[in-house]
């Protein structure tokens, strides 16, 4: 039997940065994962993502704005399964619509990003919403930086205003403005209070009550902190509801070891005489290569596409250390070479390290994505071939060029979700071998294991060696004087 909700046509939304800013202003959830492109680039998302609660409340708004939707659920459960990226279409569907249960699904293409289950009983619950006394804290100006261990046992009373309810008038009409504002404030609780800065909202479940209460604060307490999975479970009591929230701790951005630390691993003259060109050298694997070579006395020119601040910091660190040298050039492997790049190519380079990469881990459904493969191919094949063409045309030294194309053990191990990545890297190995042969170059394409970088810093965490531990033997094998 139907609940009376009229079947929905195709309901599509594309969230923009303006939407992000409006939700952040209304709720106080200004976690940089949602607003700061530079910060988000170094997280698992790789780019700013929509507040999960914004997506969920939009779905409720669409449902309650339909004709004959004037009813109130007795409970709501929401799972945030995948990231929702800005300027990307998501679609809302009613998957199940019976007398006592309605299930909403938000999809990005074929991938489910949010699942919402609403239950409706004949009588609304009358649950105990009695509250403790105590100070009520407002929204922090900056998100707190907690760890899973430090969050264990924490509790508090979190205050907010009702502004967010104005963004969702139909849902507010069905559930009440204070309840909608309270649900929106769960985003702020997770993103700004606990876990705070390095948080990922996983799910929540609330039961509604006829007892709305006189005060608006959300009372919360951490009831479980699982350090194995970096997962927090919180109990919550808000305006007319109580329930639970689950949130993960994201790994903080991975920093490359300092020049002082790396100098202890190499001889001061170990790479003297090497004139290296590192494509994609400002962060991650590339930055570790730049530092190790410089620590061993090498001269390095490295490129960056969008990490200008990191590139400048890396140049300054190498210069301050006083051994080797590092010069940064802006260059996107997908674009045309700059004049500065052509000049660098004529400076007698001995080694090419091709570390340029797009985002590796993608939140997609099963199967094969031609568009994602094309993104990898654009970098690992087209960009690699164009870079080699530039270097070959400008080469002045008699010694053969040494080409290092870091490949991946994923070609052999075939982990799920990395089909397009492994295919493109395998094709890159073939391209490196063939182009190297035509150029008379020495070619290394080692299949490297998973390393701990910003790209691989997953939730929950997966143990992995540092980039330095993996690549130092590769650097030594690739260098002969």
Architecture overview:
The structure is a single chain. The radius of gyration is 26 Å and the shape is elongated. The strands form 3 sheets. The protein has a 10-stranded antiparallel β-sheet with strand order 1-3-4-5-2-7-10-9-8-6. Strands 13-12-11-14-15-17 form a 6-stranded parallel β-sheet, with helices on both faces. Strands 16-18 form a two-stranded parallel ribbon. It has 2 domains: 11-249, Hotdog Thioesterase (Thiol Ester Dehydrase, Chain A, Roll), CATH 3.10.129; 259-478, Rossmann fold. α10 (308-321) links the parallel β12 (299-304) and β13 (325-330). It is 33% helix and 22% strand. It is of the alpha/beta class and 481 residues long. The relative contact order is 0.10.
The biggest sheet, with number of strands, parallel, antiparallel or mixed sense and barrel status, is: 10 strands, antiparallel
Low-confidence stretches: none
Name the beta content range: 15-25%
Q: What structural category arises from helix and sheet content?
A: alpha/beta
């Amino acid at each position: 039997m139907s609940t009376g909700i009229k079947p929905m046509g195709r309901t599509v939304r594309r969230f923009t940065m303006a939407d992000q800013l409006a939700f952040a202003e209304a709720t106080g959830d200004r976690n940089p994962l949602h607003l700061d492109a530079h910060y988000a680039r170094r997280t698992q998302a790789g780019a700013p993502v929509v507040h999960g609660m914004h997506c969920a409340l939009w779905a409720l708004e669409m449902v309650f704005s339909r004709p004959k939707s004037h009813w109130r659920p007795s409970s709501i459960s929401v799972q945030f399964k995948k990231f929702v990226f800005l300027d990307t279409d998501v679609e809302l569907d009613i998957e199940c619509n019976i007398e006592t249960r309605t299930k909403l699904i938000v999809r990005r293409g074929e991938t489910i990003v949010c699942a919402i289950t609403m239950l409706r009983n004949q009588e609304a619950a009358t649950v105990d919403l009695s509250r403790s006394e105590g100070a009520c804290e407002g929204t922090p100006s900056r998100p707190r930086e907690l760890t899973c261990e430090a969050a264990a046992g924490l509790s508090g009373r979190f205050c907010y205003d009702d502004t967010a309810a104005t963004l969702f008038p139909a849902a507010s009409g069905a559930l009440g403005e204070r309840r909608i504002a309270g649900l929106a404030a769960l985003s702020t609780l997770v993103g700004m209070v606990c876990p705070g800065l390095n948080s990922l909202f996983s799910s929540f479940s609330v039961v509604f009550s006829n007892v709305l209460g006189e005060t608006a604060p959300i009372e919360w307490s951490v009831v479980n902190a699982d350090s194995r999975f970096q997962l927090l479970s919180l109990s919550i009591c808000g305006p007319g509801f109580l329930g639970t929230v689950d949130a993960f701790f994201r790994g903080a951005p991975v920093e490359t070891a300092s020049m002082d630390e790396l100098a202890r691993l190499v001889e001061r003259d170990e790479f003297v005489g090497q004139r290296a060109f590192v494509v994609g050298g400002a962060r991650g694997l590339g930055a570790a290569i730049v530092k190790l070579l410089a620590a061993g006395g090498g001269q390095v020119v490295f490129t960056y596409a969008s990490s200008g601040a990191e590139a400048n910091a890396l140049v300054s660190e190498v210069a301050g250390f006083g051994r080797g040298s590092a010069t940064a050039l802006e260059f996107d492997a997908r674009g045309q070479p700059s004049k500065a790049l052509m000049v660098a190519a004529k400076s007698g380079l001995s080694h090419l390290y091709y570390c340029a990469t797009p985002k590796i881990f993608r939140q997609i459904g099963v199967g094969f994505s031609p568009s994602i493969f094309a993104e990898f191919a654009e970098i690992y094949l087209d960009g690699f071939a164009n870079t080699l063409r530039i270097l070959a045309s400008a080469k002045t030294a008699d010694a053969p060029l040494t080409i290092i194309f870091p490949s991946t053990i994923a070609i052999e191990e075939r982990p799920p979700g990395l089909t397009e990545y492994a295919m493109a890297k395998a094709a890159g190995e073939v391209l490196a071998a063939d182009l190297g042969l035509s150029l008379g170059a020495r070619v290394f394409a080692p299949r490297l294991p998973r390393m701990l970088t910003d790209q691989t810093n997953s939730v929950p965490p997966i143990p992995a060696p540092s980039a330095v531990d993996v690549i130092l033997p590769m650097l030594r094998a690739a260098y002969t004087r």
